[in-house]
UniProtKB/TrEMBL annotation:
SUPFAM superfamilies: Staphylococcal nuclease
PANTHER family in UniProt: EBNA2 BINDING PROTEIN P100 (PTHR12302), SERINE_THREONINE-PROTEIN KINASE 31 (PTHR12302:SF3)
Keywords: Endonuclease, Hydrolase, Nuclease
Domain TNase-like: residue ranges: 46-174
Record bears the keyword Calcium: no
Name under which the protein is recorded: Nuclease homologue
Coiled-coil ranges per UniProt: none
Keyword Nuclease: yes
Organism: Marinobacterium iners DSM 11526
Molecular functions (GO terms): endonuclease activity; hydrolase activity
Length: 269
């Protein structure tokens, strides 16, 4: 463990006071980022108990009742289907979740939006009073998300990413990607420099590196009004291929589009 090894090295350095002091502050910094001392997301009322009988992947389970549940607040790498390979980290996330909750009684707190387009229940899942998404994010097993009206614990979950992100663990070994690397649909966390901003009646199109367009709805644009061409920003969400829906691109239109759905999904970098 990073904290333990840092403290051990600190104890061994007795000859140089300056080095001891520097090592102490480094150790203290890492201690603050340790999941063991990170603020815990609260257990909220209004849910129900159930038994998990199957784990599909890192963010979807099935209950004894037959109901499928999609965890709120986290997106884990996709398990491959129809001949497609797994995304890096998909099996690790699924195995972690399976070890923790399969065959266990859990507590489920449905979201304000209760179901997705696939009929899955959208819910926060707790095991022994621990929010499972929070624990997974702390270990780098997925990325935090805020989608639709299900943002009740969003700030807590985005904060939970910090230990793994700083340590480059799990999904953070390969993220963020540059905007220029985007070449297929799917979830992505990207960084890029603003090359153009186009205002429309419903929001703003923000081009990154003349390759990827972000769409920022007007209701979110107020909080990001100071953005300008040349700024470096980070965004996350699902990338769409416009050529799957239209025959050709308009002049200056980027092929790849990522729609921003929450304030937390767009940050200065």
């Amino acid at each position: 463990m990073v904290v333990a090894s840092s403290l051990n090295r600190l104890r061994q350095r007795t000859s140089k006071k300056a080095l001891q002091t520097g090592a102490f502050f480094v150790s203290a910094f890492w201690l603050l980022l340790s999941p063991a001392v990170w603020a815990q997301c609260p257990l909220l009322p209004g849910g129900f108990d159930a038994e998990v009988v199957h784990v599909y992947d890192g963010d979807t389970v099935r209950l004894k009742s037959g109901q499928r549940v999609r965890l709120i607040g986290i997106d884990t790498p996709e398990v491959g289907h129809d001949g497609r390979p797994d995304q890096p980290g998909a099996r690790e996330a699924g195995r972690w979740l399976e070890r923790r909750v399969k065959g266990q009684q859990v507590y489920l707190l449905p979201g304000a939006e209760r179901h997705d387009r696939y009929g899955r229940l959208l819910a926060h899942l707790y095991w022994r009073d621990e929010l499972i998404a929070e624990k997974m994010l702390q270990q780098g097993l997925g990325f935090a998300l805020a989608v639709g009206a299900n943002t009740r614990l969003a700030n807590c979950l985005f904060s939970a990413e910090t230990p793994a992100r700083v340590a480059s663990e799990g999904v953070w070994q390969r993220a963020p990607r540059t905007a220029m690397e985007i070449d297929k649909p799917g979830f992505a966390l990207v960084i890029g420099r603003i090359s153009r901003i186009t205002q429309t009646r419903t929001g703003y199109y923000i081009d990154l590196d003349d390759h990827l367009a972000l769409f920022l709805p007007e209701k979110l644009g107020v909080d990001h009004a100071r953005m300008q061409v040349g700024d470096r920003i980070e965004a996350r969400g699902w990338v769409q291929d416009r050529l799957q829906r239209q025959n050709r691109l308009s002049h200056g239109q980027q092929r790849w589009l990522l729609r921003i759905t929450a304030d937390q999904h767009l940050q200065a970098n």
